[in-house]
Every structure is written in structure tokens, then in C-alpha cells.
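User: Teach me something about this protein's shape.
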Amino acid sequence: MAGEPLGTRAFLALALFKGSVMNRRLFTLASTALATFTFSTLTHAATELRVMVHSSFALPKPLLAQFEAQNGIKLAIIKGGDAGEMLNKLILTRAKPVADVVYGIDNTLQAKALAAGVIEPALPQTAGSTDAQLGDALAAVDYGFVTLNYDKAAVAKTGTPLPKTLSDLTQPAYKGWLVVPNAATSSPGYAFLLATIAGMGEEKAFAWWAQMRANGIKVVKGWSEAYYTEFSLNKGSHPLVVSYATSPAAEVFYAKTKLTESPTASLNLAGGVFRQVEGVALIKGTANKAAGLKFVDFMRSGPVQQALQTEMWMYPAVPKTALVPVMRHAVEPPAFESLAPQIIADQGPKWVARWTQVVLK
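Assistant: First, the predicted structure itself:
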């Protein structure tokens, strides 16, 4: 929900972290202009590889330029918006593809991508072998956890202990504590909804959401508004927010003064954690398959797996990749919820419609 952007994404927002790029995947169908950037001064003889990415994609320009120089490839990076929006663009242009490779389709979207026939159904075995698999069509590049974050100082000021379960949040002591992004318009909002359904079952999950509505849950359009405007860390009034497990590390990384500990932490409650896995795939029918596979391997290479940690605030999917020091503040949840991609594809729209009725209508 790879995602804003799953998600992130995952992952923290350009508007939030003073230049950070973790604004994870808004699930909107609105069309936006494709912004294309090239990172090369290669000759016209170089092979052009069109790479569609979601809006949170970011890697150091020297790293991209090195890939171009070493492979005789000129990259055309096409930003397609949020991951869901990006996939919709690929579906609409499948008769005349606008890209050769796509990065950012995640485990909430992979079944839809395959059903629509926009990506090649299988990559060579050499493109696989990761610890966060997405199946044969996508090589996993990174992963992240959508979870609750809390403002340490704000919680301490209330004198109320942290909730130990999602059910605790329905109690009067936690009235108005939580702000969430809209599940219909936000990747992390959607991922959090999926976590509650996977963790509690559909009926109990929607009963919980109804109780949360009665207990003052705040719903906003996207993750940026939830975190940057409504979260108490940023002068909002809600000490709990749906965000990412990497958010505390990003707080330390972008702090104006050096911090030894993050002002926030993750609250990984059962039924409230969802793992988003993002991958890279070949567009079906691409004429640049050889160049595309080189890009697949590039995205799983050591330098990229290192860089994405503080560029996109995701965990590296390739096994044995060392974490950068600041990621010690991004503790991985000990457990998370999951749903089969096909179940998400089949049931997701119905769940979002029901969530909208229960929480907003």
C-alpha cells in the first residue's frame, strides 16, 4: 500500500520530516501529471529504461548515475503518484505501456497487478531470494510496518498508562487519543484497517471501529495530516497516531539538535500491525527486458539496500543487509498481521466501503 507511501510507505513524509520522503501512498484515483527525471549525461546510443515509481521513491542521484554509467542505460524515472494511483495508470496504459519496469507495487496490490496483466508473471530465479517474498512476479526490495506511534512526553503528561490491547483504546480513559488516516484514501490507513481485520476477524474488527468512533477517534484524509497536524508531537491533540515502525528513527535522523533517543516509539498492539512489502517487476511485453533485469538486480544491490533505509525509511528486504546506525530506533515489531494478497484484492473494496459506513457516515 507500498506507501502516501503501505503501507507507506512503510516508511517519512516530505512535508513532515523537513525534506524527508516518506509520505506514503494516498489511495486516490485522481490523475496527476507524470514527473520524469533523468540522471545521466550518457550518449544518445545508451538504452533508455523507463522506470515507473511511486511518489515516495528516492535514491541518491550519484548512485543512479553510477548504475547508468556501468550498464550503458539512461534511466527515465517516472513518478506515478501513490502506489495505488501508479498501478491504475499502468492498467489504463497497458495497451501502450509507458514504462518498462515498475517499483513500488506491494503485497496489498500485487494480486490486482497480476490480474490486470500489467506485469510479467515471473522473474528469473536470480531476481528472487529475499526474506520478504512477493511471489514470482515481483522481487522484494524493502518492507515496513504500519503500526501505532505514541508521543512519549504527551502520554507521560496524561498520567495514564499505555493501552495494552486495541480493546483498551475503546475505554473512556483513552477517549480522543487516536488519530488515523482515512482507509479509503491513505495507504497506511488502509493497511491499519487490514491489520484489525486480520487480527480480530471481520465482525469483531468493525465492532471495534464502531466503538472507537464513539470514543472520539479522529479520521483525516492522509498520513501527513495525521502525523504533522493532529499528532501531539507536532502540536496536535492526539498522543497516538497510525504511522510506521521507522518513524521514531526518522525523528532522530531529522532532529535539529542531536538526540540520543527518539521522542516517539511504536506501540505494537496485537491486531494493529501490518507489514507492507514493496517490490520491483517488469512491465508485461517490455522490449527492454535485459535492461529491466539489470535494474531489478540494482534495486537489490548492497548500496541501494543501504541507501533506501534513510531515503525511503524502509527496511532492506535482502537478507544480511546491515542496518544503518539510526535504525536502532526503528525496532521491528515482534509480530504482525497478514492476509493473502488474493483475499485483499477480493475483499478490500468491500471492507473499505464498510469501514466508511461504520466510521464516517
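Now, about its shape. The first helix runs from residue 61 to 71. The domain at 35-144+276-329 is CATH 3.40.190.10 (D-Maltodextrin-Binding Protein; domain 2). If you'd like, I can walk through any region in more detail.
User: That's plenty for now, thanks!
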